[in-house]
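Lab notes, practical 5.
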Amino acid sequence: FFDKYYKPSNAVLVVVGDLDQKKTMEMVEEYFGDIPGGTPIPKLSGEDRINKGERRQIVDSPKANVPAVFIGYVSPPHKHPDTPALQLLNSVLVDGESSRMHKRIVKDEEAAFGVFDSRLGPSLFRLIGASNAGVDIEVVEGLMQEEIEKVQAEGITEEELQKVKIQWKKNFISGRQTCMQKAEALQHYAFFHDDLGEINTDMD
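Output from the prediction step:
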């Protein structure tokens, strides 16, 4: 696995800062030039067939301090046109004290959060809930499922949509302030997008 995927032909190197291009390229060559590039990795189609329907697994661990429930949905590849909608839905459900899951579940020290793990191929939309000692995890799962069913049946409100759009724009813009943030952004668009210039148009 390491030999196949961890190589220059499957990597992006980004250097950001007040630099001299000639000297920088000399340093890149010095530190990385002798690493074999390797053969290119075949592009993922993003059309892998995923088993339909619910699959459930219970994992017991003596290291777990509290019970938790993980609800995951297969989501499309990053370049799919539904990705922006899923990013905003994740915010509606779990971001901040006014999010649906927070208002419904985060009480009595229960907790809920989500992760939209967007990748080149099939991705994962996860919602995670944990309960404090003495709180039945089935109760937490039931509340989470109710909120999911509400979205399926009713969608979200215009007020919620406008709020998370503003939050997304704020995070998008503020995430360009440091050299590291700029490097991460350039890496993301070089790797996940067909055109690096989309870094300037993605907000639209």
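Observations recorded by the TA: DSSP finds seven helices and three strands in the chain. The first strand starts at residue 68 and ends at 75.
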